[in-house]
Here is the input.
Amino acid sequence: MNEISAQIDQYLNYLMVEKGLSGATIESYGSDLARFHRFLSGQKIKRVAEIDTAAILKYLLRLRDDGLGIRSRARHMVTLRGFFRFLVQEKVISQDPARLIDLPKSGLKLPDVLSVTEVTNLLETPDTTRHKGLRDAAMLELLYAAGLRVSELLHLKLRDINLEAGFVRVFGKGSKERLVPVGGKAREKVDHYTKIARPALLKTRTSAYLFFGRAGRPMSRQGFWKLVKQYALAAGCGKTITPHTFRHSFASHLLEGGADLRAVQMMLGHVDISTTQIYTHVARDHMKRMHEQYHPRG
Here is the structure.
């Protein structure tokens, strides 16, 4: 094992132990770094100190020549940025050779979002005369109201939501905790569900989870995705909708309404504000359309 390979192993171990990232995420980073290591070997670069900005740029060009799209190259660059920041932090190197390299332009695909009307129509679709309809209405409303990731919604415990105070406690990536406000509509639907539908669906069982599937365990991601697709179809929405579309729409609608970017970052649980900034492009497009539509010289 040469020096670069050893540092990659140390970085992946750091992500697992210190950052608490999931196995799938670490595997993805490991795959990207293994490819970078193979490239360096081909360039006869055997030590971390020998990696300069020119070598990284040459690697990005190699990825392009190998047929990787802009988004994939951007992902590789994000991986390298994290790796070199770690090496500086650990004082393995004194200067970050990746610090001056921007992500490939358009490397982050703008997310698909729903209009406020489309969201409203979809949220009103579940049949709330049925217990499962009450549950589904509460799940969809809370997903949009708090901008939750699907896994965060499905693993919420009953104790994590405070309807009286109007917030939900969320454990996101790396088990990081955040508090997110919950509006009146969502509180109303969740309250209705917990008082009427939840006890009826549990029957004689018990569950710590706010929402649950069989045996009181969390519903599967696939199961919830099927529900979303069914309700999108019933609502007559022509767009391709996934559970994550609600999170995209949550962020974009807040920014369109004038919310502060830092506040949205905190609510989404983004560590890096650059991840949140992608939604400003969506909000900017919305403002441009409004200007063209309503300004007398638009």
In short: The chain has a mean pLDDT of 86. The chain is about 60% helix and 5% strand. The longest strand covers residues 167-171. Residues 124 and 137 are 7 Å apart (CA to CA).
